[in-house]
Amino acid sequence: MRYNIAAGLLYLATLVWFGYRLDGVADWVAIVVIFVAPFLAGFAAGLWALPVPWLALLLALPAGYGSGEVPIWFLMMFCALIALPAIVVGWAARWILTRYAVR
């Protein structure tokens, strides 16, 4: 159980860092945070990681507009919409692995 909480908190910290550093992040880091990190969080923390992107969205509200015309929280909302299916796929991958491959 502690492992699940630690993985979820690490993913939350990564998303908050990403939200506040959105302008100065390299493209490959953005791809990893948006696509790979949710899969790994779902694999490690399971379905407990589902509320994490929405918590990051709430924590990004004070970030303002950054250097663009769109608020950071609006961009984090799209990041959360991408992350939710990736978390479920990561959880399903872990479930399949423990159900069939570990035996």
Features:
103 residues, mainly alpha, 4 helices
Give the mean pLDDT: 87
Number of domains: 1
**Spatial gap, N to C terminus:** 22 Å
Order of helices and strands: HHHH
Question: How much helical structure, as a percent, in the residues?
Answer: over 70%
Largest sheet: none
How much is the radius of gyration in Å?
A: 14 Å
Strand content: under 5%
- Give the helix/strand class: mainly alpha
Number of strands: 0
3D shape = elongated
Poorly predicted residue ranges: none
Layout: helices, strands, pairs:
Layout: H1 2-20, H2 27-45, H3 52-59, H4 72-101
Helix pairs in contact: 1-2, 1-3, 2-4, 3-4
Give an overview in words:
By secondary structure, the chain is mainly α. The chain is elongated. The longest helix has 30 residues, at 72-101. The protein has four helices and no strands. It has one domain.
Summarize this entry quickly.
The chain is mainly alpha-helical and 103 residues long. It has helices spanning 2-20, 27-45, 52-59, 72-101. The chain is elongated.
